[in-house]
What we know:
Layout: E1 5-7, H1 8-22, H2 24-31, H3 36-43, E2 50-52, H4 53-67, H5 71-86, H6 90-96, H7 100-114, E3 119-126, E4 129-135, H8 142-158, E5 162-171, E6 174-182
Antiparallel strand pairs: 1-2, 3-4, 4-6, 5-6
Amino acid sequence: MLEPRVIGALIQKEREVLEDIVGPEAVNAALNTLPDDQREEYSTVRPLTRIRTRTVEAVYSAVADGTGREVMRLHRELVRASMENALRGVWRALLRLTSDDALVRRAPLIFSRGLSAGTLVARIVTPGAAEIRLTGWNGVSDMQINGIAAGVETLLGCAGRQNVRVVSHRTLDGACWIANWHI
């Protein structure tokens, strides 16, 4: 498998939010601790380019280290805030009118536009519960699993679902998330 990459437009938006959370000085200080190739790749990302997921993860880890934060919590906060920003106004109103099945069916499309590795399949298993499976990405990182869980929670929350909880576990060739919410 080629090295997993994420679309630059997503990372540019996440950088804006990251700077809002910890400040641009903290982000720049963290970037200065990275190897030249990762610092350059992250600093020059463009909307249509793809950046290695390991570079993005190195940035988030460096920011967490430099600010005394736990990296998975910071990452979850970052994903949540980024998605909430993207789903403002009319989008949020439309999401509230969308059925659970339609929301869950869109998850693979959103995933495939952002990440270059693996295949996501999502389905409703019972009212108020969905199973999301990632295949074809053996060794997917904990941070990617964390980010997908945060994304699913945020999407469902923005769509008006209450008490959303997402748990995950690794599989032989990827991961699985079970999402539950109140209707």
